Amino acid sequence: MTKIKGAEAFVEALRREGVRHIFGYPGGAVLDIFDVIMDVKDIGFILSRHEQGAVHAADGYARSSGKVGVCLVTSGPGATNTVTGIATANMDSIPIVVFTGQVPTHLIGNDAFQEADVVGITRPCTKHNYLVKDVADLPRIIKEAFYIAKTGRPGPVLVDLPKDVMNATVKFQYPESISLQGYKPVYKGHTGQIKKLVDLVLRSKQPVIYAGGGVIHSDASDELRRFAHLTRIPVTTTLMGLGAFPSDDPLSLGMLGMHGTYRANMAVTYTDCLIAIGARFDDRVTGKIDEFAPKAKIVHVDIDPTSISKNVKVDIPVVGDCKLVLKDIIKAFEKRQDEIKILTKRLDVWHERIEEWENKYPLRYNKGDKIKPEYVVEMIDKLTPEDTIVSTEVGQNQMWAAQFYKFRMPRLFLTSGGLGTMGYGFPAAIGAQVAFPRRTVVDIAGDGSIQMNIQELATAVQYGLPVKVMILNNGYLGMVRQWQGLFYKKRYAHTSLAVSPDFVKLADAYGANGILVENPADVEDAIKEALKIKGPVLVDFHVEPEEDVYPMVPAGAPVSKMLLV
Amino acid sequence: MRHVISILVDNEAGVLSRVAGLFSGRGFNIESLSVAPTLNPEKSKMVITTTGNNEVIEQIIKQLNKLINVIKVVDYKGKEFVEREMILVKVSAKEGSRAEILRIVDIFRAKVVDVSPKSYTLELTGDRDKLEGFIDLLTPMGIVDFVRTGAVVIEREQKKRRRL
Questions:
Q1: If you average pLDDT over residues B136-142, what whole number do you get?
Q2: What is the dihedral of CA B19, B124, B128, B7, to 10 degrees?
Q3: Which segments of chain B does DSSP mark as H helices, in order?
Q4: C-beta atoms of B58 and A309 within 8 A
Q5: Which among A108, A126, A141, A181 is the top mutation candidate for probing chain B, defined by the most B β-carbons within 10 Å of its own β-carbon?
Q6: Suppose A102 and one of A162, A278, A519, A535 were both cysteines; which one would form an S-S bond, judging by CB atoms 3.0 to 4.6 Å apart?
Q7: How distant is the Cα of A331 from the closest Cα of chain B, in angstroms?
Q8: How many alpha carbons lie under 13 Å from residue B151 in its C-beta half-sphere?
Q9: Separation between Cα atoms, residue A523 and residue A539, nearest integer Å
């Protein structure tokens, strides 16, 4: 066998993993890899304009396609610039592999130029990370990195590549199997626990399914729908779970939590049997934890044992993959048709109660003279095709998108749920557009968030990625302003974005298209026009400046105590 | 509640930092820590003593198990086990106290490992209570320097109980 350079082995390993796209940014420590990549035809390279953009793009690629996203950057500042993106992927369990350059091994620890202890820095925000010290370990480490990223509870893995290791030669042999003694995710749920779960559900009077991102990660939406329809149990989803269950399904309660629907939050407050599937009882979901589902027996299906009984005490834990466990649950239920009939009949009363809640306080907003951001989102929903991928930034834009866009299928909604990273949406949309060049991809943005990674407009233009950015421009960091309004006596400390660029001119400067919309009557036409344009578009909607997101559960309050419009 | 936890890990650079970082990052407490390679040089065993209620300990064990380099975690609570740690203590030994110190050494079955005109250096192995008792008795003599390992533990073999 002939020997090849580490940099060539790196590319060959990516090929074996089926990698089609790399998002990244070159630099001194990774020159050898880029020199090889230049001639590679079967793996596309997308040059971002900031490493944070590259890692979010890899994340958006992964969320939309279900494949592992790949990012390649240089050492030191290149690597530290990926940290926010890695932490974002870590909180939301997104499979990405980030390759960072490193100074040559003999310089590590010497405070060399562009040196940073990246393995040390990213240890708490990756699922796992590696420093490759010997080129002979490179194939095994890359194999393990991809395996760890996509199996179990998915997550980001970082591999640090010293320059001399990329120059050293190796007899390339890609390992066929993996042996990680300390990593053996459990996929199949415990049969006894599943039986207990079924027994409990069949006895319940007011059950609710609370589904999270785990359902999407394990591609379990079909099973979730079958389970819900079989038992007639209503389903609420978390922000991360939007799309896991069709929002237009009669059993859908919409999103729960801080900005969830009235009926979803009331349902989880009064339920006697809460079935959590691939969700982790985040504080934005539970509100005051002691008053969350206070009357309920709690069932929790999750692949990550640490999620179970972390925030709330669980009565029936089931460790396993959502899809496999749901299949087993359905099988167990199907054997008990008579009891299911009694249950579905009994649930009439529960459904009536939920309908009363819905009729009392549906999701709504007041019309006005200015453009209402909720209306913009409704129009985007109305005018875009069914398979449109929607990303969001973080803050009010994110919550309005979650509330007023109807997510009907999984993997169409890309949002930074756990970390809440402003600047996530636009590069994530770019990543999704790379994965699905023919689909419509929309970033619902705010005027604050979009400026955190606006430089990626150049990336979108360079690669002909026709992402549509819909800026709900209210001149504020709206969500923070909303909190200041409600809880800090309207003292708007540094939340006014008094100076912002002219987004139309800015788009023009980058070679993209810009559209300004100031009138409610023009909203529909502007969206239509943006969708018609072949290239990337920024649409600048000047919306009602002090519009708030409702319903809202104040931080620390129980979810039943909502502020309503 | 005090728990003694042993953790079998890959003997690799950075593993100690992963475990220690997990404790600090999640606000868990480490009272003592000892770590050394096992008979298989590719693995190390850590013994951590920590405190926390049942929920905290459950999270600690689950979080440790989640680390890729952690192979096995054992909580010794409720198990029969032998626990030992060692101290080295340099105690000031003046004319009037030298004999008394040696008497204490004798009672505790400690060892004198270094002698000088001004001090004795003593070594003692035992469980926590024994070490604490020893230290209490030596403190009035004047402890000049003191170092203590973390606890190490091993499970006791199950004994057959004979019926009387």
A1: 95
A2: 20
A3: 15-25, 54-66, 98-108, 128-138
A4: yes
A5: A181
A6: A162
A7: 29
A8: 25
A9: 10
In the residue annotation, A163 being an active-site residue is answered as yes
Which chain A positions have a beta carbon within 8 Å of B14's beta carbon? 119-120, 123, 131
Residues of chain A contacting B21 with CB distance shorter than 8 Å? 123-124
pTM: 0.96
Instruction: State the nearest Cα–Cα gap between A219 and chain B, in angstroms.
Output: 23
Q: Is-contact A264 A256, C-beta < 8 A?
A: yes
Is the Cα torsion angle B65, B67, B71, B77 positive or negative in sign? negative
Say how far apart CA B122 and CA B130 lie, in whole Å: 14
Contact A227, A208 (CB under 8 A): no
Report the C-alpha gap between A1 and A387 in whole angstroms.
Answer: 47
| φ/ψ bin of A502: left (φ > 0), alpha (ψ from -120 to 50), beta (otherwise) | beta
**A339: exposed, middle or buried (C-beta count within 10 Å: 0-12, 13-18, 19+)?**
middle
pLDDT, tens digit (0-9, with 9 covering 90-100), for A443-492: 999 999 999 999 999 999 999 999 999 999 999 999 999 999 999 999 99
Q: Does this complex have an ipTM over 0.90?
A: yes
Burial (CB count within 10 angstroms: exposed 0-12, middle 13-18, buried 19+), residue B160: exposed
* Terminal C-alpha separation, chain B: 35
Annotated catalytic residue: which of A12, A17, A51, A144?
A51
Catalytic residue among A399, A479, A552, A562: A479
**Three-class DSSP category at A188:** coil
| Alpha-carbon distance A57 to nearest alpha carbon in chain B (angstroms) | 26
Q: Do strands B81-92 and B119-126 pair parallel, antiparallel, or not at all (unpaired)?
A: antiparallel
Edge-to-edge strand list for the sheet holding A44-47 = A44-47, A21-24, A69-73, A96-102, A157-162, A128-131
Q: How far is the C-alpha of A405 from the C-alpha of A408, rounded, in Å?
A: 9
Report how far residue A95's alpha carbon sits from residue A66's, in angstroms, rounded to the nearest whole number. Answer: 8
Helix A337-360 vs helix A262-270: angle between axes, to the nearest 10 degrees? 130
- The answer to whether the CB atoms of B55 and A309 lie below 8 A apart is yes
Active site residue A479: yes
Which one of the listed residues A127, A143, A163, A327 is annotated catalytic?
A163
Q: Summarize pLDDT for A114-151 with one digit per residue, the tens.
A: 999 999 999 999 999 999 999 999 999 999 999 999 99
What is the CA angle B21-A422-A520, rounded to 5?
Answer: 160
Cα–Cα distance for residue pair A244/A227, rounded to 1 Å:
13
Cβ separation A148–B68 shorter than 8 A: yes
Residue A407 CA to residue A86 CA, distance in Å, equals 26
